Structures are given as C-alpha cells and as structure tokens.
Amino acid sequence: MSGDERDRQAEQTGSGSRRPGGAAAVTKAVIPVAGLGTRFLPATKATPKEMLPVVDKPAIQYVVEEAVEAGLSDVLLVTGRNKDAIENHFDRAWELEAALEKKGDEHRLRRVQKSQVLGDIHYVRQGDPRGLGHAVLCGAQHVGNEAFAVMLGDDLIDQRDPLLPAMLDVQKRYGGSVIALIEVDPAQINMYGCAAVEPAEDDVMRVSDLVEKPEPASAPSNLAIIGRYVLHPAVFDVLRETPPGRGGEIQLTDALKTLAGRPADEGGGVHAVVFRGRRYDTGDRLDYLRTTVSLASERSDLGADFRAFLREFVASLPPETDGDDTRSGS
C-alpha cells in the first residue's frame, strides 16, 4: 500500500490529527491486562493484579494516566475472564459519588471521578492466553492502519521522567517501530527480551536483532526490553504469521525481530530509546513492595511521616540471621 493510499484509508477511518508530511499522529494505546497474576495468589484469586493498589491507586490507573499525558487519549484494554473490576474502576460510581458529595468531601470526590474522565477507554477480550503477541493482535481491529503504543502494566514509569513522548518522537522521525531499553546486570538478562543494537544518535539505537530471554553467555547485549512500545501496524500481519515461540506463546519479540529485518516501505525497521529514568516494577511481590515504598516515601501528603516510620522500623529490626524468619508467606 502506498503512502497516499494509507493516508486516504486513515482519513476514512477517522485516524485523528496529522503530523507534518501527512502521517497520522499516534493517539491509540493498547494495554494487555488479561494475565492471571499467579505470582500474587491468593490476593489475585478474585481481584485482577492490575487492580492491586500502589499506595492508593490501582496499578492500571498509573499506566492509563501515563498514556493520556503523552497524548494517547484512545486506550484499549485487552482483558480476560474475571477482569470486570477494571471496567468498573473506569466507569461511574454513582452511589459513591453521591455519598461523597453529600458529605462535602470534594477532595476524594475529585479523585474518584478522575479515573472515569482520563480518556476514551475501550475493551476487548483475549479469549485464550496465548502470549503478549496474541494480546497485541487482539487490538488489530480497533487500531486499524495506524501506529500505536503498547504499554505493559507491570512497568510504571515515573511521571517526572516521561518515556513515551521520546518514543513517539523517534517513531515520528524514523518510522517503523520503537522499543524501550534499560541497562541491566548481564547476569539477569535471561529475565528479559534482549536487543542487539548499533548507535543512531544519543540514546537512540538502531535494533539489528532481538532475542527473548537469552542465556547470559549468548546474549547480544545487556540492554533489556521493558514494557513500552510504539509499533507500526505492519506488526499485525507479522503476528498472524508468527508461530509460538518461547513458552509455547506468540512472542511480540519474535515479531519485532522480523520487522527489524524488513525495509521501511514494508513497515520495517526498529529503533530503541535507552531509558535512564525512574522505573518501578510491579511484576512480583518483592518488586511490588519496593514500588509501593518508593512512591509512598515521595508523596507530599504521606512521605515525611512514612519516612520517619521506616527509619524507626528499620532501626528496631534485629540483626539478620539465616533461617530466622518464622513467618511463612505461604
């Protein structure tokens, strides 16, 4: 399809504002939230892990706020069974609002109302849990023939260190797709997707290869993929042809590897932004606790008292000894 044909199709589908040169501005974000959250059982038996609070907001709200602040006001949540609480959170709560209004509690009323006016939020179900690539593919009909962002809820990006605007700018300049990378301890690269790169400019890299969770000895770098992507719509056709990879799932990393080797006029080319800002991981229990403590410590309304408590609490702890913990988390 030619550039003119793409522009005509985008106009017919109402793709939004235009960038210089006729390309459509990126306005859509796809956020997969269909995971089972098994690392947090039994808390996630009836509550989606994305609804677990980070201080006093569910984790998913941080991600949606980040999308909207970056100009991505059209948000598609790819959900699954037992995720109704997410839809309810972004919907009106008439009884609660009426009760708060009657009490004159304007502060909490505004905070409750914020989640329902963040953006234009849509939902689609991922019927079978077939991996991140399949979850992204579930958004094909909604996204259409436009570049779009994918945001994973396990990664929270500090609003003081915005990442998405930089990625959107790289996609605007280079086209193709853009991923976010961080430097990690080489011994831990087997926990991530990994990129082989060559410099393009400053913290922008050109990606030549991608490997999902490589062994440290064979990893092409210590640059790990984190949960922010800006993708060319050509990724949908690639995902349809991508066989199950690691873990028997359709891996987004495998599709991006294919796109990295394709010419630009076929939607190919992958660039990367190396992120050096503050990122919080909520993907397992320990990282979730670290995230909550970090953010609570910096809150203007809680931080001073909470930091004082932490100092006193840590000072009161007995010296560590192996095997001394008698309180099981099971």
Description:
- The protein is of the alpha/beta class and 330 residues long.
- It has one domain (3-283): Alpha-Beta Complex (Spore Coat Polysaccharide Biosynthesis Protein SpsA, Chain A).
- Helices cover 34% and strands 21% of the residues.
- The chain has twelve helices and 13 strands.
- It has helices at 3-12, 59-69, 84-89, 94-103, 106-114, 132-137, 140-143, 164-174, 234-241, 252-260, 285-297, 303-316; strands at residues 28-32, 53-54, 57-58, 74-79, 120-125, 148-151, 155-157, 177-183, 193-201, 204-212, 223-231, 270-274, 279-281.
- The strands form three sheets. The chain has a nine-stranded mixed sheet.
- A hairpin with a 2-residue loop joins β9 (193-201) and β10 (204-212).
- α4 (94-103) runs antiparallel to α5.
- It is globular, with a radius of gyration of 21 Å.
- Mean pLDDT is 87; it is low at 1-22.
Write the layout of secondary structure elements.
Elements: H1 3-12, E1 28-32, E2 53-54, E3 57-58, H2 59-69, E4 74-79, H3 84-89, H4 94-103, H5 106-114, E5 120-125, H6 132-137, H7 140-143, E6 148-151, E7 155-157, H8 164-174, E8 177-183, E9 193-201, E10 204-212, E11 223-231, H9 234-241, H10 252-260, E12 270-274, E13 279-281, H11 285-297, H12 303-316
Parallel strand pairs: 1-4, 1-6, 4-5, 8-12
Antiparallel strand pairs: 2-3, 6-11, 7-13, 8-11, 9-10, 10-12
